[in-house]
Write a structure and sequence with these properties.
This protein is 26% helix and 21% strand. With 151 residues, it is of the alpha+beta class. The strands form three sheets. It has a four-stranded mixed sheet with strand order 2-1-6-4. InterPro entries: PADRE_dom.
Length: 151
């Protein structure tokens, strides 16, 4: 996803919502952030059936490279938790797009949530709250359409 995850993304305030944090996107779209670099094994400990992949190393037609558990996850980077069952399957364009949409939705929702410091409320139901996780309707519709993908 190196070419898809642009550092030029900004929210309404003009700030990059993931700046100065390690960003991990879970399979369910949840965003986990750390203000300091952490070891990949820290994220994998709670997710033993997954591996981490850096958005900078995702290319269509290639197998997703695993981040070494001993590697420090870097600030200002986006990482995906991917099921181990997908570890030997080349990434399709459709799956890459789904991951990009998932990351964008999580980062936008997080920046809006952080800015208001309270749960987002929307009269148009574009944002919902389920099991402690904010979910955007775009992410839900992509999840239903491409259910067999990584999400």
């Amino acid at each position: 996803m190196g070419t898809c995850a642009s550092s030029q993304f900004t929210n309404k305030t003009g700030k990059q919502p993931w700046k100065s944090s390690v960003n991990i996107i879970h399979m369910d779209g949840k965003l986990e952030q750390y203000k300091e670099p952490i070891k990949a094994e820290h994220a994998l400990f709670k997710n033993p059936s997954c591996f981490l992949c850096s958005s900078e190393n995702m290319y269509v037609g290639l197998v997703l490279p695993r981040v070494d558990p001993n590697e420090d996850l870097q600030l200002d980077q986006i990482y995906f938790l991917v099921p181990l069952s997908k570890s030997h399957i080349p990434l399709s364009l459709k799956e890459l797009c789904v991951l990009a949409i998932k990351a964008n939705a999580a980062l936008v929702l997080n920046s809006e949530y952080s800015a208001t410091n309270k749960m987002l409320k929307s009269s148009s139901s574009s944002v919902s709250h389920r099991n402690g996780c904010l979910t955007h309707s775009t992410l839900q519709s992509v999840s239903h359409k491409f259910g067999s993908c990584y999400i």
